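Lab notebook, bench 4. Still working through the backlog of constructs that have no structural model yet. Next entry is a single chain of 238 residues. Request: give me the C-alpha cells for it.
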Amino acid sequence: MATKREFSREELAVHNAKDQPTVYIAHEGRVYDVSGSKMWKTGTHMKRHPAGTDLSRELAAAPHGPELLQRVPEVGTMKPERDPMDEKVPEFLLSLFKMVPMLRRHPHPMTVHFPIAFCMVVPLFNFLYLFSGEKSFETTAFHMLVVAILGAAVAMMTGPYTWWLNYGAKMSFNISMKMGASSLLFLLLLAGFFWRFSQPEVLVAAGASSRVYLLLTCSYPLLVSVLGWFGAKMTFPD
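Model written out:
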C-alpha cells in the first residue's frame, strides 16, 4: 500500500493509468487506489468515468454506493480546495446540496419520465378509440395530453437548471438536440391540445382533419424517443 499523503487535483490527475501506471480516484476527500480492479484497468470506468479525478458527484448518482470503495486501499486525502464548477453556485445552494445531494443531479432525470410516459400513451388511446369505437378512450387520450403538457413544462424548467449546475451551461451537440426536440415537442403538444379543445369531435369525424390530428399525436412518441436517445448519450456516451 502506498504511503498516505495529501493530493492536489493536479497530483491526483496523473494517476490515470497513462501518465502513471497507478489508478487513483477521489471520493468525499479521500483518495483510493483502484489499480487492482478490472473495472479500472483502462483508466476509465464504464467508458465515462476517468481515473485521476474526484468522483464524489458521480458516485452519488451511481447505481451502487460508496461501500464498494471499502474493498480497495485508501492511499491519501485530498487537499482542501473549492471545486471550480462551484464558483458560480450560490452558497445557500451548496449548503443545501450537502444536506440533500439528490437536488444537484436528480431533478431533471426524475421529471423527464412523466412527459415521456404520457406522450407515449396519447396516440395509443386514440388508436384504441378508432379500433373499438369507445369514446372514453379518446377522452382519456385528451386527458393524457393535458398531463403531458404539464409534465413537459416541469421537465423543461429542470433541464436548464441541471445543465447550468452540472455542465456549466456549456453547449454541446447532445444539449442542442435536446433543446430543439423538447421545444418542438412542447409546441406540438400545445397544438394538439388547442385543436382538440376547440374541436372536441376532431377525431370522431372521419376525414383529412382527423387523419392530420392523429398523425400529430403520433409525432409525440417519436420526439420523446429522440429526446431519450440524446439524454442517454449524455449519461452513457458509448
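Notes after review: The two ends are 33 Å apart (CA to CA). The mean pLDDT is 84. Flag for follow-up if needed.
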